[in-house]
Amino acid sequence: MKKPSLRFKYSVLMTALTTAAYCSGAPAQTSSPNLPDTAAAWAKASRQDINEAYQVTLDNHPGTYDRQNPGFKKHLDQARDNALALADQVKDAATYSAVLNRFNVSIHDGHAGARTTFPASTAPAARWPGFITVWRDKGLYVYAAEAGKPDAGSEVISCDGKPAKQLIADNVFSFKGRSEEAGHWWVYSGELFVDKSNPFITLPKACQFAYQGKTTTHALQWQDQNQVFFNWAKSAYAGEKLALGISEPRKNLLWFAMPTFQPNAEERKTYEDMTQDILEHRERALNADAIVIDLRHNQGGSSAWSRRFAEALWGKDRVSRQMNAYFANTETWWRASQGNTRFILDIAEKFRQENRNDMAAWAKQHGENMQAALEKKELFYVQQTARATDKLAKPVADLPTDPQKLKTPVYVIVAGDCASACLDALDVFTRFDNTTLIGAPSAADSTYMEVRMNPLSSGLASAVIPNKVYVNRPRLAGQVYQPAIVATDLVWSVSSFQKIVENDLVKRK
């Protein structure tokens, strides 16, 4: 990678495209597909789609030839075999989805696999047992419950004689998420008590709960999800979703809510105003007791928003020096397959037609370089980078031209689904020693980025294909950010996090 800014620029580019169903390798899906009308037809479709997704991935995914990840093809082969072993039992949309999920989870890479494209309403309505659970550090707890159910705050000990953690591994992580990533336990464990008609798991019938020193057993009564479920689910594992912007829970405690890095037009204006406010009134941040950056519910988007915010907070040149040093040895390798190359060239033309000339020129440059590599039968186009000097590799702490150094404690709230551009934000924020992460472990990225969705011929799903791989990225594939302070409160409210911040400020005195 030449400069971190190129990475941010391309994130903006791909954010725009992934929301537009713009694909290569097959026509874009513009309407609901014709669904199979018999169990045999569903089973046949699942076998065809698994094999097609496998082959499209093998032919185009950078991981196939990634020397840093020699196990990629083994995982891909295992994913195909695991899914095909279940395919003959597919009979409807729910079982088809379960088999694709089995394919995905076996690859161990969030930027590979296949995603269904038919409406979620095709599958039967999900059910629940009248209570919602959340993972808090090392256990699963009841977050909220209807009358007669286990008390809120109860820990789930076991179900049908099987420990809760083992049951989560069997029923949840066998079909979703990656159990080796600490953050995914916070995100997905609660789905143990959500029935999505997966026929390959056994639903719990009776569970043991511990609460205030007593252990009780409750027989589960599965029922259709209702409005109560949806109301609780909105704030269960990560708390309320704040509107993007600045607030001040008390004087001199600045709270910056950033629930998305994929903002709409109104939110983009808010980001711009928020960043400008820091630049024009930086003394407010310098004199604050603490600054909180709230990333709850943020699953990524464009890295540009966090980068600009950080530049305003710490100083543009400071951030650039730190990031240049951090990525000093990082390179970007573009997988020069026919499908990937056509995709990038098509992007260039799309942006040219939209008069977005800077993006068009940039995409055209990389597409043509990929085409040249393809014609020479080379597997990758390696983006040329200017090697960092010793000065860049060892960032200068401060320069006379830098703005006043920010010494205010900065607390970043992280949830278990923080991934992609959200992790890029942590890369930036944690370059500075006044930053403390609080909350949960983050999710993790592979080194494969900038995905395109390649529709499968059935119209029921699309294969997930990244176009590039980062080589020598300092944050390793699968590496999570661990919080310095774990938030174990059942309810992740602003007040609960404010209490964490206030207690830590007292300890600093």
Describe this structure in words.
The protein is α+β, with helices and mostly antiparallel strands and about 500 residues long. It is about 40% helix and about 20% strand. Among the domains are: about 125-175 and about 180-225, Roll (Pdz3 Domain), CATH 2.30.42; about 245-330 and about 385-450 and about 475-509, 2-enoyl-CoA Hydratase, Chain A, domain 1, CATH 3.90.226. Helix 2 packs parallel to helix 4 (about 95-105), helix 3 runs antiparallel to helix 4 and helix 12 (about 340-355) runs antiparallel to helix 13 (about 355-375). Pfam families: Peptidase_S41.
User: Whole-Å distance between the termini?
Assistant: 42 Å
Structural class based on helices, strands and sheet pairing: alpha+beta
CATH class of the domain at 245-331 and 387-449 and 475-508: Alpha Beta
User: Mean pLDDT score, rounded?
Assistant: 91
GO molecular function: serine-type peptidase activity
Protein name: Peptidase S41-like protein
InterPro entries: ClpP/crotonase-like_dom_sf, Tail-specific_protease
Organism: Undibacterium pigrum
Descriptive keywords:
Pdz3 Domain; Tail-specific_protease; signal; Peptidase S41-like protein; serine-type peptidase activity; 2-enoyl-CoA Hydratase, Chain A, domain 1; six-stranded mixed sheet; 19 strands; 509 residues; ClpP/crotonase-like_dom_sf; 16 helices; alpha+beta
